[in-house]
Design a protein that fits this description.
9% strand; 50% helix; five-stranded parallel beta sheet; alpha/beta
Length: 264
């Protein structure tokens, strides 16, 4: 059930990157899990189980380097699988570097054209547009630490450069971009939402936030933002309709945008 718009006018629309502005890395991670003969969403379960003190959370807060992440994440995967005899051997083959490779291979892609067209239209309408994203620093080169082969590390460096370039281009379209590793806070932590509204100089109730993860949206709602969940089974036209509901006006999409689904 959607919350009714507050009496405050919406002044800003904020977007997640992976799963909204660009494709989600979920499919790439599922393929890697199948390669290792691990159960589906094994990595997601490891990340949830280790929580805010886990390797991925620390990486996204800028508290671990890629090399440190790889060693720690591989150990976490092995520990998580220790109670499942069938998965122990496969979990020991996990490469933290290959895991990052899966995420970066999607992050390096151009933004979804229909969402980029939406951002441009919102700006023409006089709205502020921003990004709140969980990511990590790609400035330092890979060191080959972990179970990955040297060739893997070289490929990772090239991929990191592409992802950095893609993010640099994406920033040009937004008034504010809040990246978790730069501010040492990550979704769903309240502080990252506070930083976004502070930088945009708006109140939370004047914002609509689009993300693909329910936990991130729940935290945004608790802070006072309006939210829209972007899912692979929800057509873009439906997302647009939800946003128009909060804005209380039609969004004049004058660029050619096909009525396609938001695919993973």
């Amino acid at each position: 059930v959607r919350a009714l718009p507050s009496s405050a006018d919406i002044r800003a629309v904020l977007f997640d990157v992976g799963g909204v502005l660009v494709d989600s890395p979920v499919l790439e991670l599922l393929r890697y899990e199948r390669t290792l003969r691990l159960p589906e969403h094994f990595f997601a379960r490891v990340i949830r189980a280790t929580g805010h003190a886990g390797a991925f959370a620390l990486l996204e807060r800028g508290q671990l380097s890629e090399a440190e992440f790889c060693t720690r994440f591989e150990r976490e995967c092995a520990t998580h699988a220790a109670t499942h005899v069938a998965h122990r051997g496969a979990a020991r083959l996990v490469s933290g570097r290959r895991f990052l490779d899966c995420v970066l291979s999607v992050a390096a892609n151009p933004p979804r054209p229909h969402y980029l067209a939406l951002v441009r239209t919102l700006k023409r309408m006089g709205l502020l547009v921003g990004v709140i994203t969980n990511n990590w620093s790609l400035a330092a080169p890979s060191t080959g630490v972990g179970t990955g082969e040297p060739e893997e590390a070289l490929a990772m460096d090239a991929l990191s450069q592409r992802a950095m370039d893609a993010m640099r281009e994406l920033r040009k379209h937004f008034d504010v971009v809040v990246e978790s590793y730069r501010v040492r806070a990550r979704k769903p932590e309240r502080r990252i939402y506070e930083l976004a509204t502070s930088q945009l100089q708006v109140r939370p109730e004047e914002c609509v936030f689009l993300d693909d993860l329910g936990s991130n949206l729940k935290a945004a709602r608790a802070y006072g933002m309006h939210t829209i969940q972007v899912r692979p089974d929800v057509p873009f036209a439906s997302i647009l309709s939800d946003l128009e509901y909060y804005l209380r006006t039609e969004i004049p999409m004058d660029e050619a945008v096909a009525p396609i689904s938001s695919k993973l």
